[in-house]
Each structure stands twice: as C-alpha cells, then as structure tokens.
Amino acid sequence: MFRRFLSDRRGNYAMLTVFLMIPIVGGVALAIDYTQASRHRNITLNALDAAGMATALHILKGASDEEAKQYAKEFFEANLGPIDPAMTKLHVVLPENNAGGSTLKLSATLNYDPIFYPAFQAMRGASGEETAMTISASSEVRLKNTVEVALVLDNSGSMAYTGLGSGKKRIDLLKEAAKQLVETMAGQAGQVKQVVKPVQFGIVPFAASVNVGPENANASWMDTDGLSPVHHENFNWDTMEARNPNKRVELVRGIYRKVGKGWKEEEGDKVTRFTLYDEIKDRTRGDVDAKWAGCVEMRPYPHGLSDEPASWTRPETLFVPMFAPDETDQPDGRRRPPNDWWADQTGGDAKFRQEFMPKYFHAVANPSIQSGQGPNYSCTTRPITPLTDVASAAGMKKIKDSIDAMRADGATNVPEGMAWGWRVVSGRAPFTEGRDDAERGNDKIVIVLTDGANTYYTPESLGRHDNAGNKSTYSNYGYAKNGRIFEGTTANWWDYSNDNYTEAMNQQFDKLCSNAKDESIIVITVALDLDDRKRAERGQIEALERCASESRFRKDGNGKPAKLFWNATGGDLAEKFKEIADELSNLRFVS
C-alpha cells in the first residue's frame, strides 16, 4: 500500500500549482505594477517638461523668484492627470545668472502605491513593512540669454501716408510699434543680471539706399582708394586731359591720381569719390550738402547679396560711397534731368556734359545744391544704428532715439535693407557688435517691414528727361544702363522699365533671403498696408512670405511650422508687433 501511495501521481499538478503560485502571482504583480509605475513616471516627466517651458517663459516676462516657483508648482500639478498631487514633491532650482546661459531645473519625487505587490509580499510571508515605491524624474530648460535683432524698417516716401484703419501716418505707427517691441524685450533682458548684452537691437532704416554712417568714411571696409570696379563707373577721366594736359587724372599702379604740373603741390594725390566730395566742398565754401551723407552702392554680384567680408585683395568686395553725377544743364522742352546740381562748364551732348570731370575741380558762381539733389541724391535715410544693449538705460535711449529720428522720403529698396540688416547682426565687419556667428545659445534675427513694392525709376516715369541714356535715376545700383540691377536675375537686361526693375529686385531679394537663412539668420517679415489686388504689391507680399523663416513653436492650419510672416494694416500693426515679441520671447529658451 505504501509503495502504491508513493507511485500514485494523481493531484501532483495541483500541488505543483500551489508551490508555483507565489512566483507566478509575484511576476504578474510586478509586471502590472512596473507598467503602471512607468506610466506614472512618464506622466510626471511630461508635467515637468510642460512646467519647465511655461515657467522659463514666465521668468523671461519678469516673474520674481517666488512667483516663478509658485507658477511652476501650479503648472506641474495641473498636468499630473490621474496622479494625486499630494503624492508628489516638486523641487525648483531657478536659473543661475552666469555668462553663457542659465538653466532652470525641475525635479520631482513620486510616491507610487503598488496595486498587487503588497498581496505578493503577504503571500510570501513578508512583514507588513511599507511597500510604496519612490519614483524620481527631472527636467531641465536652458534659457538662451542672448538674441540680436536688426529692425530693417521702410522709410520710403509712402510711409508718410495714413495707415489703413488708423488715422495716423504709417511712419508714426511704425515708431510706436517698434519702440514697444524693444521695450518688451528690454524688460526680459533686465531679468538676466549677469549675462553680458542679453538682448541687442540695431536699426536699419532703408529707402532707395541704406546709410552706413558718414563716420565710416575711413573704415577698413570702405573703398577709400577707388579700387572697386564700380568706383569710377560713371566718370570719364580722359576729359581731364582734353581740358588741360597739365591737370590730368590717370591710373597709376591701380589707383587714379592727379598727374601734371598744373596740380602743383597736389600732384600725385589720389582721386576717388571721397576726394570729389572734398573738391566740391572746397568750391562751395564748406556747404554741408556737399559732404558724403553716408550711403553706399550695392556691391557687384554676388557680393551685394551676401555677408562676405570686404577685402583689399578682392576690391569688388569693398563698399563704394554713393556719388550721384551732376547731370546735364540742358532741358528737353519743359523737362529737366532728375539731378542737375552743378554747372556743366562744357558744350556737347547730354552724355558728354554728364561725364565731363573738370567741372568738379572748378568753382561755380553762387553755388547751391537744392534739397533732394546733389552727389547724395537717393540717400534719404538716417544712418544705421549698430547692435546696442537695450538692457541698459543708455542703450535703450539710443535705440528709441534712432527710431524716433526716422523720416519718410525716397523710393523702396528692400534687398538693400535686408542685406544691411544681415550685416548688422553678423559677427564680422562691416559691423562687429554681434556675437560670433558660431556661438551657441544666441539667435541672430532680421525683422523686415515694408509698405510697398520695390521701386527703381526711369527718369521719364518721373516727368524728367534721360538724354544722357542713364535708363534710370541714380541709386545704390548706380544707373540701370550699367546693368548691376539685373545681375544674378533672369530679368530682361534690355527692358528698361519700372516693372522690370521691380522684378529684378524681387529676385535679388529672394537670393538674399535664401543666403541669409543658409547662414542660420532667422528672418521675420511684415507687409504693411500692401494690397494683393495690385500686381506689384501682391508680388511683394509673396516675396516677403517666401523670405520668412519657419517658427520653432507655432503651427499653421495644416499642422506645419508657421511662417514668420505678418500681413499687417496700420490699424493692427501694434498687435502684430506684440505677436512678434512673443515669438522672440519663445526663442529665448529651449528644452
């Protein structure tokens, strides 16, 4: 019987099941509790991330330390979902004000009560010790304490028009909105006490050209020796010898110089656009209108559409001062040329009279240069204000004064404004106030606003005559006859019309925007009071939208990154600039 009992196998599975129940139930309990614990940890992490991003922005908007901590706690707990906030503890380490960036650290501990694990403990005979699990999670947000912004603002004549829905001039609306933007960003910069120049702004007023500042006449990047291939573009120095063989101007080892005994002690002196300003000033008893106002011509393609540094070994990269030639005195019926400002002192046709160089070296009777004319023709804007730290009271005043000094006058050349906005935020010359282009944690931003299509005029379209064959008024492209306005475009080089000039400028703007964005420049664009029912203005709207970078934070209606483009009217310009301020605020932190 005993042997039969030992050999009986009935009931063994039940007995084995009893013996195995503890590890099986324990495994299931652990799996379920592990899954639930992982879910709670992910929820906690998501709540931390959300609280960190929101609190970082709250800090940048001026929250005190206590306000920031309370805001973080409330935001964290509001995003915990099924987790009881009482089971969590949040730790907040506020940003340290050190150079190079500040970090906001959030960490949390979560006491998780297992569902099945206590029963498993009881089954294995364990004591009733505490079975709660402690879960830790952390999140970190690095505040990007530095942004550099160039405000590229249209100062053309149409900015004096009344803004739609406002009752104020566009230029005045722009001044108010721009100053509010700067004040908002300066307020945020004030929260970062020890970071050097956390927020910098530069101002680039533009019309037909851009004024780089007359104080830069001797800058290393200016063509002070007349080496650029466009420096002597409109001058015929052979006419000097025809007038007086003893007072010639000739090319001597690459530089035009005064040659001949007739120059006396001046023999050997170089002759450039700068020296021509001096010659005229001497003939007008120091008339201030004869001084170089500070505007420059666009560099030959492709250099004009880039931030390439100027180099004396590559003269085409140097910047050339604008010098509008004196056009003929001869009227054509009742029409006169656009820019007759000096006595011709010669006969011949209109082209010869315009290019006749001895006239600049002789005094004229009762010299005067009428407003809007002279060698500074098409130079109507105030000078650039380089990047300036708006966290300081002095810097804020400088930028606001620069904005207030803007005036509406002249044509519209958005490409040139865009090019100089890029150069202002760049870390290399001409303007070197910006941080190194490769520095991490710093954003370089160009904000471009215009209220009109690109414009470049034929004299006839202004009721003037063009007997000298210039094909356009003088501007930063020189004259259209020289072709610089068409370089790098598919525009018809033989179509000398305002519409074709606009098309060429739009294409150059496209290239500029692409080049700047390839160099990590963030481009924000604003169309002011542009009418898409008008072909030229519709083209400008489309160009501005193409130029704009994509937001890192906002999505459009299709779920794609929103373009940093705003289509504004005079009535809502201030509101649009507030939205831009929000975008800039978001740029100042990253998880």
TrEMBL record:
Transmembrane segments: 12-32
Keyword terms, alphabetized: Membrane, Transmembrane, Transmembrane helix
Highest taxon of source: Bacteria
Keyword Transmembrane attributed: yes
SUPFAM superfamilies with a match to the protein in the record: vWA-like
InterPro entries, per database record: vWFA_dom_sf (IPR036465)
Name of protein: Flp pilus-assembly TadG-like N-terminal domain-containing protein
Species of the source: Nitratireductor thuwali
